[in-house]
Amino acid sequence: MRIGIVCYPTIGGSGVVATEMAHVLALRGHEVHLLSYDRPSRLRRGIPGLRFHQVQVSAYPLFRYPPYDLALATRLLEVREEANIDVFHVHYAIPHAVSAFLARSMCGSCFRFITTLHGTDITVAGSDRAYMRPTRFAIDQSDAVTAVSQYLADETRLVFGVTKPIHVFPNFVDTDRFKPGKGKRWPERDGNERVLVHASNFRPVKRVADVVRAFALIQQKIPARLLLAGDGPDREHALAVATDLGCSHQVEWLGPKENVEDVIADSDLFLSASETESFGLSILESMSCGVPSVATDVGGVREVMGDTGVLTPFNSPEAMASAALKLLTDVDLYRKQSIAVRERTLLHFKADAVIDRYVELYEQVVAKS
Ligand code: GMT
User: Fold this and answer.
1) How many angstroms separate the CA atoms of 362 and 369, rounded?
2) Given the CA of residue 274, which atom of ligand 1 is nearest to it?
3) Which end of the chain has the smaller Cβ count within 10 Å, N or C?
4) In this predicted model, what pLDDT tens digit does every residue of 126-149 receive, in sequence order?
5) Is 0.85 topped by the overall pTM?
6) pLDDT tens sequence across 174-214
7) Does the domain made of 186-348 have the CATH classification 3.40.30.10?
8) 147 Cβ below 6 A of ligand 1
9) Which residues of 66-77 are buried (b: 16+ CB within 10 A; e: fewer)?
């Protein structure tokens, strides 16, 4: 098939999932065109059959807010004309589904499009009055809609009143790349220092400062270090909290460039303190590395973790610290958890199995043309 994929390029799960899908589909022999306003951070070079198209957004002095949605609609049409795309798959509804709807209307329904809902496109930005109506309209107009968790599908029906079927296809992970590290786990390491990790786009919704608050309590009881991978608006705040709580020497900010699979694989425990999380891709990536998580019990996180790791209430760094301390001081429990998270990943979240479901959906949508 000739498939167009649209995503945001920045650090964040939806761009990662879209880019990884593009890799796998191209390696399977499909012709894949990836559209984004910048080169996605995970996009690999040199994969035959995979092309990147940049969406150029022109800025005129009159525009306080350059209309990215129009530029994207134009690029969708251009790529459709150039490559005879069978189906576009847009990740994140705002404004990608609206642009796809516009482009499809402009060419007399010359292509089909599928919208994948990821999270804040529904739970935060999507429920903002300014965006809700066109987003709901474009979701309804999509040829098929998927959500990354049952929680998100339910929320979409509840908040948006969407009545069309929403397929739940979980996110996936490359289990060959995200695999248990070569390094030893804390019970076998000299000095027994535990390594905790958090990776995200440091947006307020991630509550990275709560991760630091939990860590501050943990390091009072056991030797520990916290690695912070990624970047975003709350980075300075999180590091300031570490300074205020007197643990800044044990908190290391790695930035967005580090090889996240190596960082996670060489850690002992992942911490997630999010206020809302439709899925939690970094939690899954950690599970794939045999690294259990302590995470807030929000959104679709329990669908990802199942009965592995520990879920704690939102806004309780104390509960998070005590759960982490239990896992990081009980060798048997830790080893069992480390095996369980990898097994759960292999059972439910392998890339090939999930991508097969998307391909089946592409085929159904194209067959309707
Ligand atoms: O919705 C967002 O916050 C952005 C989005 C992204 O692009 O990173 O994150 C969402 O999609 C990810 C991939 O499906 C999920 O793993 C995240 O849980 C989800 N974020 C939230 O729900 C806050």
Assistant:
1) 11
2) 23
3) C
4) 778 999 999 999 999 999 999 999
5) yes
6) 999 999 987 788 888 877 899 999 999 999 999 999 999 99
7) no
8) no
9) eeebebbbebbb
